[in-house]
Specification:
This protein is α/β, with parallel strands linked by helices and 353 residues long. The chain contains 13 helices and 11 strands. It is globular and about 60 Å long.
C-alpha cells in the first residue's frame, strides 16, 4: 500500500527489537506521532509492558493498537533459527502485518540478519530484483548522500550492482528530495580500466541504459565524505567496511577533541568559548539524525533502526518509512527497473541485427 499527502498511514513497529526496547521504541513512536499526526501504529510485543509505557503518552495511545506476541527475536539469534522458531515473535508478526495489508510499512531496531531473512521470506522481492540491499544516509561536506549496499550482499555481480543503482537513485529522490540524483560506483580509481570485471560491466550497463539516472562513473573512498555524488553503489562487503570505518573515525575524532579540550585550563576556556560551534558540529554528525536504513528491493517498506539508538533516532527511522511510503518508492523502483529491462532488451535486439 502507498499513500500521499496527508492520507492516514499505519506503521507496524517491532516493539521488542533494540537494546533498550520496548521503552525506546514507545518513546520514539510518541515523538514520531507528534511529527506525523496522521500516522497510526501497530505495536507488536509484550502487551503488559507496552501498554503501561504507551499509557504515559496519551496522543500515542489513542493512535496505536497493541498486538500481543509471546516471543521476541534476540540480537544474538541466528537468522535461520529466528525463521524456524520465531513465527510468533514481534518481528515476524510486524512484517506479516505488511504482507496482510494491515500496515503500510514496518520499522524494527532488532536483529538485522533476522529482519532481512524474515522480510525476504514473507514479503519477497519486487519483480526483476534479485536481492534486497541495505541503503542509508550519511553526512558529507555538501550535505547528505546515500550508500548501498551496507551489508546484505557480500558478493555481487554486475546485475546486482545495476539494480542497487536504480534503487538507490529512487531512495535519494524520496528521502533526500533530490530531483535528479547523481549516481556512481565505488571503485579503487576513477579510470575506466580500474576495478574488477563485475564493476566495469555494471558501469557499461549504466552508461548505455536509457534511464532517468545521472550516472557519473566511478568514485573512490575519499569521495564519500566529500559528497562528490548523491548515491554511492557498492557490494555489501565493501559498503559495510566503509560505513564502519567512517563511524569509527568519527568516534576517534571526538575522542581526540575531548582529550584536547581537557588538556589544560586554557583549553577548557577555549571549549567554553567554542561550545555553540561544537554543538552544531556534533548535531551535524549525530548518527541519530541519519538513523533508518531501508531494505530496498522488497515488496514492502521495511526500515531498520540502529539497535542502540534512542527515542530521537527511532523517531527518525519512522520518518524514513513515512517518506518512502508518501513518495511511492517501491512503485518508482518497479517502473525504473522495468524501463531498464526494456532498454537492455532493445540493445540486445539491435546488436543481433
Amino acid at each position: 500500500m502507498t499513500a500521499s499527502g496527508t492520507e492516514p498511514l499505519t506503521i507496524a513497529l517491532d516493539a521488542m527489537g533494540g537494546d533498550q526496547a520496548p521503552e525506546m521504541v514507545i518513546a520514539g513512536a510518541a515523538l514520531a506521532r507528534v511529527r506525523y499526526p496522521e500516522v497510526r501504529f501497530l505495536l507488536f510485543g509484550d502487551e503488559a509492558r507496552i501498554g503501561s509505557l504507551a499509557a504515559a503518552h496519551p496522543a500515542l495511545a489513542e493512535a496505536a493498537r497493541i498486538v500481543h506476541t509471546p516471543d521476541a527475536v534476540s540480537n544474538e539469534e541466528k537468522p535461520s533459527i529466528a525463521i524456524r522458531q520465531g513465527r510468533q515473535s514481534s518481528m515476524w508478526l510486524a512484517i506479516q502485518a505488511v504482507k496482510d495489508g494491515q500496515a503500510d510499512g514496518v520499522v524494527s531496531a532488532g536483529n538485522t540478519g533476522a529482519l532481512m531473512a524474515m522480510s525476504k521470506l514473507i514479503l519477497r522481492t519486487l519483480p526483476g530484483i534479485d536481492r534486497p540491499a541495505i541503503a542509508s544516509i550519511f553526512p558529507t561536506e555538501r550535505g547528505e548522500s546515500v550508500m548501498l549496499d551496507l551489508g546484505a550482499n557480500v558478493e555481487c555481480d554486475a546485475r546486482h550492482l545495476v539494480q542497487f543503482a536504480v534503487m538507490g537513485e529512487v531512495f535519494a529522490r524520496c528521502v533526500l528530495g533530490i530531483e535528479r540524483p547523481s549516481v556512481a560506483l565505488l571503485n579503487i580509481g576513477e579510470e575506466d580500466v580500474k576495478g574488477h570485471a563485475e564493476i566495469r560491466a555494471a558501469a557499461d550497463t549504466l552508461d548505455d541504459a536509457q534511464l532517468p539516472i545521472t550516472f557519473t562513473g566511478f568514485v573512490e573512498g575519499n569521495d564519500l565524505p566529500a559528497g562528490t555524488v548523491d548515491v554511492v553503489v557498492t557490494d555489501g562487503f565493501t559498503g559495510n567496511v566503509a560505513l564502519k570505518v567512517a563511524e569509527g573515525t568519527a568516534r576517534l575524532y571526538s575522542h581526540f577533541l575531548r582529550r584536547a579540550f581537557a588538556n589544560s585550563l586554557l583549553a577548557r576556556l577555549g571549549y567554553v568559548l567554542a561550545r555553540n560551534v561544537l554543538r552544531q558540529v556534533s548535531q551535524r554528525t549525530d548518527p541519530r539524525y541519519y538513523n533508518g536504513a531501508m531494505f530496498l528491493g522488497l515488496n514492502g517498506v521495511v526500515v531498520k533502526s540502529h539497535g542502540g539508538t534512542d527515542a530521537i533516532g527511532f523517531a527518525n527511522a519512522v520518518g524514513v518509512a513515512v517518506d518512502l511510503l508518501r513518495h511511492g518508492a517501491n512503485e518508482q523502483i518497479g517502473r525504473d527497473y522495468a524501463a531498464l529491462g526494456s532498454a537492455l532488451d532493445a540493445d540486445k535486439r539491435a546488436a543481433a541485427q
